[in-house]
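Quick one: structure tokens for this chain, please?
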Amino acid sequence: MPIPFTRHELKHPRWWSLLIIGSCLGYAVTALTRLPLWGLPVVTAAWLGLAAWLGWGAPRHPASPRSFRVWSWSLVPIALWGLYIYLSESFGIVDLSAVFFHLQAGMTDHGGVSRVGAALFYTFSMAALFVSFIWLTGHDSLWRRIDPFLALVLLASNPLLYGVTQRGAAIVTDDGAWLERQYVEPMILDTPVDPPNLLFLYLESIERTYADRERFGDAYADLDAIGERGLVFEGVRQLDNTGWTMAGMIASQCGTPLMPAGLLHDRQFSPLERVVPGIDCLGDLLSEHGYRLSYLGGASTAFAGKGLFYKDHGFDTILGREDLQPRLDDPEYLNNWGLYDDSLYDFTVEEIRRLDAEADGPWGVVNLSITGHAPGGYPAQACLDRQGEFDGQDILFSVECSAWLARRLVERLEREGLLDNTLVVLASDHLTMRVSAWEELIHGERDNTFILLGPDIPVGRISRKAAMIDVFPTILEALGFTIDWHRAGLGVSLLSGEPTLAEEHGEDVINARMREETALQQRLWEGLTPQQQESQAEPQEQVLETPKDAIMERPDASRDEGLTPGQ
């Protein structure tokens, strides 16, 4: 069929439908292949040209009104692809576990107005795509015949469904207890005479990768300056199920990835009442040893179960946007998520002053910043005054702001004498998601920020193959506690000579095992998840390949054999 040139023909619903389908296809191709945006009209034009040549939507024998239908087999698969592309564009990496967890833990008060707008745009676009595709299949018998096969292809190729089916198949075919056998119950064997205080600063998405000055200039310079006075850890990678804020917090405070309670069992979409109640975390251990613990964050504590987590794990004071906004001098000085970090850090200083004045045992303060949050960050007014105008997209502007604000906070507390006998921890909660510097970030290896600063902390750098689960036991030993086997949870203290799981097995092996794991998931959510019925069959003996494997299946097995652990 010839390409139409008359205005009358171009007004035909056929061309509007094909244009919408072609535009959506072009956007999908550019989003999934990372082609420049100019690829969108190219793909759309190619689609329209092919449609004109093959006569799509205008067959020689159009469908009769009686055979016309208002549905299509491909609608659900198209919707699932739309969801995948939205998540990929929003966060860079689609993490199914994060989706499941946030559905349970709560997404109210998330403050992400820009992402809400994007979600609405995607919704309207998908609605237009549905109408256009229904029109095409209703008026073209060729597309009607291939519709069921297209639906199967779309379902089979969707990474979202691939992840679900892969995990489901693994659970059926494996015992799902490898990580559980590596898990060591956190246990403090001895305490220091004068336990230090703890200030734990989570710097939202400020990964150590930004320290590369060839790629990112001086954006990370203020954190480098702090690191020159303390101990910097290099090589702290990101395992699966640790790549969002609550997962990063749980990994670094509990020594385990966050496997959502509802993944493939009866509580899949039930609201959470507690967060990882089956394990002891940093707050549990410190509160048992007399620490007074506080959490402060600029965003709502209702989002993603943060308030539930800290309440359940030993924290006395939990302050978020709903608590701190009324205390602002200007209650309107807020970003989409909540408080800017200059305001948050002022309240953090006030809280530390209060805890220090009570002089009733050591204190611990955990603080979560917001400046570096993808996609563009939320630089505070103090940074705008210092750095100039912000274009709303340049993540390096926000990285520099976050690093400077953190350094300014530490130096302010030091000047007031509030960090005497205090361990300061600076860490990214996870690697950043999609930002303006994304192509540069993914160009090479990436690792998390992890810096220790304190009176008994040596100055230097430690480069090891590690993960955020190793932060938990490292902090315990940095505080002067003696812990069982230098381990806590799945983590190994990076101050010890013990090999980490990443060093022993590699990230790929750990991630593959995680997709099979059910036993550790049951431990995390003990009391909330349905209990597995005991099998009546005799357990089969496990065959291990080497004596070393036999020891590593249970981290304390060497002691049972009379071996001496490394110091």
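The CA atoms of residues 29 and 40 lie 8 Å apart.
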